[in-house]
Amino acid sequence: MRAAVLSGPGPVENLTVTDLPLPEPGPGWVRVRVEAAGINRSELHTRLGLAVGVTFPRVPGIEAVGTVDLDPDGVLEPGTQVAAMMGDMGRSYDGGYAEYTIVPREILIPFRSELPWETIGAVPETLQTAYGSLTTGLDLREGQTLLIRGGTSALGMAATALARDMGAKVLATSRSAARLGAIEAQGAHGIVDDGKVAEKVRELYPEGVDAALELVGTDVLPDTLRAVRVHGTVCFTGMLSNQWTVPDFYPIGYLPKGVRLAAYGGESSDLPAEVLQSYLDRIAAGAVTLGPVTVYPLADVRRAHDDLEHNRVFGKLVLRTR
Question: Which among 124, 215, 178 is positioned nearest to 313, based on CA atoms?
Fold first, then answer.
């Protein structure tokens, strides 16, 4: 099979498409014929050496969609459409940047869809994270106001769609004024992020918004916290800036009075199968979109990673493995 192998942390040249033996699943594992794999910041962090617990050489990819090729236990029928995500994919064992991958059965989510594989490939991990952030992380309710910091990321676009679906009023940021139109096309109010988002939010909502989803990082988190009302919540989910930690964290000095700070990081088990199926059906019906998708063939994995690293495209990047 063909696969993209990361030899070790470093530049895109460390990613090489090569031939590997077809992997053989043991008990409890399933071989998946991969059709498409979403590209995530997590894989960029792995390539840049920012992730911990990764062994090399490694086929990256924390998610993939395709069909069951072989289940030695006979639980899943060959040809069953499945999404695989998380569970240490692309970290302690090979992931989705390949024509085939083997994964633990418990991380698979079966579904049925006639959408193109590249469209399906953009959905699972982004949907899981957006859904979990808005429900578990923020407990978002109909009629509430939500700020999304990092609104033109794949996750930001998906979170906007889901939040609007829940009946929330959404404000979303981008550092580029040219991308505000994409935010507004998702049904959100666009704000240019010049580092002083809280001031702009409070011009619209003097008491602050009910909730905020932080997708940029800890470098802007204090400003995001200041945009939220007393008893409102900020959920820290993303790190587009690669800033993960808060040095010398002093809660009383760092957190505005009465503003709550939560975090979210999920697994495949956090995305109910019925939620995945529902959104695939609604995407197929044209009732909802999770944002733009840029598709790359497996042979162009280096270009895809370089585009992601340098923010040349927005929305979801997907590898088409066939």
Answer: 178
| Residues 137-188 pLDDT 10s | 999 999 999 999 999 999 999 999 999 999 999 999 999 999 999 999 999 9
The pLDDT value given to residue 75 = 97
Do residues 163 and 139 lie in contact, with contact meaning Cβ atoms separated by under 8 Å?
A: no
Q: Which DSSP string do the residues of 177-225 spell out, in sequence order?
A: GGGHHHHHHTT-EEEE-SS-HHHHHHHH-TT-EEEEEE-S-TTTHHHHH
Amino acid at 295: V
What is the Rg, in whole angstroms, of the alpha carbon atoms belonging to the chain? 20
Q: What pLDDT, on a 0 to 100 scale, did the predictor assign at position 240? A: 87
The CB-side HSE value for 29 (13 A sphere, CA atoms) comes to 14
Tell me which residue of 309, 281, 222 sits closest to 47, measured CA to CA: 309
Per-residue tokens: 184: 């507004």
- Residue 44's H or E segment, with its range, is helix 41-48
Whole-angstrom CA distances from 288 to 160, 164, 185, 186 are 11, 10, 11, 9
Sign of CA pseudo-dihedral 50, 51, 53, 54: negative
| Contact predicate 229/207, CB 8 Å | yes
**Distant-in-sequence, close-in-space partners of 77: CB < 8 Å, separation ≥ 6:** 68, 71
Taking each helix axis from N to C end, the angle separating 154-165 and 124-132, rounded to the nearest 10 degrees, works out to: 60
The burial class, CB within 10 Å (0-12 / 13-18 / 19+), for 143 is exposed
Q: What share of the chain is helix, strand, coil (3-state, %, to 5)?
A: 30, 30, 40
Residue range 267-319, pLDDT digits in tens: 999 999 999 999 999 999 999 999 999 999 999 999 999 999 999 998 999 99
Q: Are 128 and 266 in contact (CB under 8 A)?
A: yes
Lowest mean pLDDT among 111-120, 132-141, 228-237, 244-253: 244-253
